[in-house]
Amino acid sequence: MSSTGTVFTILGLGALAAAVLPRLVRRRPLSTPIVFLAAGAVAGLLPLPLPELDPVTDRVWVEHITEVCVIVSLMGAGLALNRPFGPRAWAGPGRLIGITLPLTVLATTVLTWVLFDWPWATALLVGALLAPTDPVLAAEVRVGEPTDDEDDEDEVRFTLTAEAGLNDGLAFPFVLAALALAAAGGMWAEADWGRWFGVDLLAKAAIGVAVGLVLGRLLGWMFFRAGSHSLRLSEHMEGFVALAATFLSYGLAELAHGYGFVAVFVTACAVRAAERGHGYHKVLHGFTEQIERVLTAGLLFLLGHYLVTDGLAALTWEMVLLAVVLLVVIRPVTGWIAQLGFVTGPRERVVTAVFGLRGIGSLFYLSYALGHHGFDGQARDLWALTATTVALSVLLHGASATPVIRRLDRLREIRPPGAPP
To answer: What's 186-235 look like in SS3?
Structure first.
């Protein structure tokens, strides 16, 4: 069997499975990502004539394919959210971004430094790249397709979806802080923290938000209110326009030296706000979800293949310990701290705190960072650690999401949050 024939056969089976599996596993303690991760692992164990996969030597390819997957998923997440922006309405994700994200980076950085004989710059990089969440890997804990149904956008689903949409971009300053520290030879006092704070933390985020708002409102006017029938694309119901909005917002933000991830998510939210009840949002979201599903399936297949062929060989008990502590201690604790005094009930706070999935964003940040000097000596160890953390998150959260969220929904029907026991 030729390598080309094997690859195309697997691609065809994978695309078909990406269409069928979500419906098959929807009500089971299983997720589509788990199936693709396992399929990749099995393929790696079989004597199939597959091309060699090395995320270190193929860094550029990995960076760009994960980059596309992240921005497509961000567009889908933003289009799904139907809640008008406001400090009170968005307090849940705001707390997780402002409190949980930096606390997770700090705790993971310190734990990495304690467990490994790595420089502080590398430890900070680990904290930064493992901080972003990715609820797209467990459909039960994210907002579904655009709808006016209030039950589909309860506080848990909304908070987790909005958090992932924001922190995929707002984790970037911490990655750049690790690069700045590495460029200074690991000397904290020598790094240019003034530029990092003014440019990397504030200016680039502000540019991303500004590009997203301006472009989102412009596209919203064009889609729904333009005087020309040809420009009013909502009347033509073409879903691929979502890719145009995704790539345009990301590209413009990057050209303006802002955070493209932030711009894409804000663009999607602004487009949704232009005409919240219009059916065109469902068309746009459906198209992005299909593209995202195929890309995610392929990446998880490759991740499972990499783990059994190369990643597990570099795995150490310290890496496993770090991954487990991050998922079952650091994220739940920091997520709970962020919600102290929040309006939701204890059960909602627990679920929100626990379901901080790690996913494709971590793979992108690692590929991006390895394109800069300072981390070459730890490249394979970093890949083994990151891949293991993502795989454990897929298994742990993917298997538990359906039963936990279904039980939470039943409890909510019996006794709404805040009701007396």
So the answer is: CCHHHCCHHHHHHHHHHHHHHHHHHHHHHHHHHHHHHHHCCCCCCCCHHH
